[in-house]
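How a chain folds remains the central question behind the approach discussed here. In the encoding step, the backbone of a single protein was reduced to a row of integers, each denoting a local shape. We regard such an encoding as a compact summary of how the chain folds. The sequence in question and its structure tokens are set out directly beneath this paragraph:

___
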Amino acid sequence: MAIEILIVDDNADIRKILNELIIDAGYKTRVAANYNQALTEIDKKMPDVAILDVKLDKGDNDGIELLSHIKSKNKDVPVIIITGHANIEMAVNSLKHGAFEFVEKPFDQSRLLNFITRAVENINLKSENKEYENRLFSSYELIGNSKNICNIREQINKISITDSRVLINGPSGSGKELVARKIHKISKRNNKPFIILNGALLDSNKYELELFGEEKENGSISYGALEKANQGTLLIDQVSEIPLDIQSKILRVLTDQKFKRLNGNNLVNVDVRLICSSSKNLLEEIEIGNFREDLYHRLNVFEINIQSLNERVSDIPLLIKYFSTKISQNYNIKNLEIDENDSYILSHNWKGNVRELRNLIERIAILQPDNKDKVSNIIKESIKIDGLSDKIKENRLSVPLKEARENFEKEYLTIQLKKFNGNISKTANFVGMERSALHRKLKGLGIKEFN
């Protein structure tokens, strides 16, 4: 794809020099002679790189205003500021607003070309990183054979052909964003934007700006998540963290299918599929007054509940095998040899869920151990099985032998039962017991069987 550079300068001779210089360097160009022309060109199609004169026809800082407008639409576009009226304050101000470089007139052509080359390298690098991240994330599948994961796969297939709003519940790291991406990927909106707004990470004063956008005094527009996601899908992650006053405005958008930008007078119509996710129980949040009940019912047209990894231990060996293969390919190293039935992994309390497990596999890949013992040591150190507090160790050693044995059997059989997804025959075969004997043992230990 050819790189396109927008040249904005009110001096015809400068525009001509820049245009010829950049075309000779192998890039495409567009030109604008004043502020309004530049605004039109930017809004018509965002350039890959922009070269802006500071002082145009509207005032002393036209270029800075255009710089802010570009950054509000795409912060990754490199902008080179040029001026014949340079001072330190102006240079600092332009860099503060996100300029890539600041150049004084008369400029050295080779120096300017060097800045342009660096700007192009910068956008290529960001593009490659973004493509890698998207490929990495979108390549991940919903792995597991537990009843919970099988049900979720069926739910995704059913709801993806509709435009119904979806509420995804699950603990942190369980895969809520992955489920939302899968819904979008096989929906009729799959070639349109998938935008994420994280309610937990936003500054409390910026929710409205991030969601609805803003119309500025100079006429430029900062687009919010709703407009960025138009005709596509908007995922509001951790929706429980959205303030009550913003919740009421979201409710109005869901009702009217339109809204006003901050400082705007005109209504904006959007066509967005809304998916929300939460690690908190929204019904409990409603009870304590942190979440609107009417909004909850609007969002919860279809509900998907992801269990914690500790509740679906049978998925862990499959996830280990899957992540080992994927991450080995991503790091271009030989396949990792990780025991999928490692007792340390199966008995670990996965508070970080699938994300924590994936991070463990990635840590092993980075360290690249050359034998299974070293892999095992990394696992033990990483999940700190041996890092039990002295108090816990003391408690485990201070009970009679019979009780200690019962505690061990209960913990061991519970893990094995989860590992085989509640299948008594497979569990009995693995632990070396008759099926009827295992039934009696489970009943005696007070372990509830499940299907």
The chain has 20 helices and 14 strands. The two ends are 54 Å apart (CA to CA). Residues 109-139 form the longest helix (31 residues).
